[in-house]
Amino acid sequence: MADLKLKDLRYLTALADTGHFGQAAAACFVSQPTLSAQLRKLEDYLGVQLIERQPRHALLTEAGAAVAARARQIVATSDEIVRLARDWRDPLAGSLRVGLLPTVGPYLLPQVMARLRKALPRLELLLFEYQTAPLLQRLRAGELDVGVIALPAPEPGFESLPLYDEPFLLAVPQQHRLAARRQVQIADLGDEPLLLLDEGHCLRDQALAVCARSRVHEKQDFRATSLETLRQMVAAGAGVTLLPALACRGAYSSTAGLRLVNIVRPVPTRRIGAVWRPSTARAPAIAALCELLARHAGIGRSS
Questions:
Q1: Is the pLDDT of residue 157 over 70?
Q2: pTM
Q3: What is each CA distance from 206 to 99, 186, 217, in whole angstroms?
Q4: Closest CA to 112 of 168, 174, 164, 186
Q5: Where does 92-303 sit in CATH, by number?
């Protein structure tokens, strides 16, 4: 197959498109005699007539049409390989596989996606949601290029970069005794039932750590699978919870039956950052993504 040349397949597809040797030659930026001679060599190599040569135009034989169809696929694949290599030469092009926590992605992405597309128009972001443990497993296995998680990463072996510190707000039912307060202390919760996410969500552990010095207790007969479930259960009067700031903005800033109350200093926060493999070949793209996430998350960058 060493004698089957890609340029000859291009000549054949051009002739199939135009039906004319001169037009096909012009489309391929070669002379008509060169194109005609190369197609004759292709026929000789394959041992079958591909073209009916007529004075003013050319027709493909049945065999020629079948070969041209396959040749078109080969040419398209070849062009795709060239584009792929070009994208890899450009560090801010191609695709970047990004994993985000379920408590981060739905709230961070609306803040930044339009700016990301504008600033990195050649970079295609492929977005996935996982809890911390499966996210890091996929990152280590090479299925993801970068993860956005709560720092510090619970496993060694990753590079990391803080992006922003996100404060927590207290979410209480609208008729709750603390609903009219502008600020509260965690100690003000007393014996309140605390609604939490299910095991595996790092936000669960963070909320427990914040409330560790108060008398607040976890509601044992309920564990939510998402922040939105927590939000609705609080609005229904089932208890109170802590919500990260980005989950309290924009479309999420108001929920019927629920009030958001600031917590006095020192305000409890979580640190959101990026993690990636030290050996990654996508370091420039990851650095550009991190810069934009930190700049446009709508929260002051962590120090």
A1: yes
A2: 0.69
A3: 20, 14, 14
A4: 164
A5: 3.40.190.290
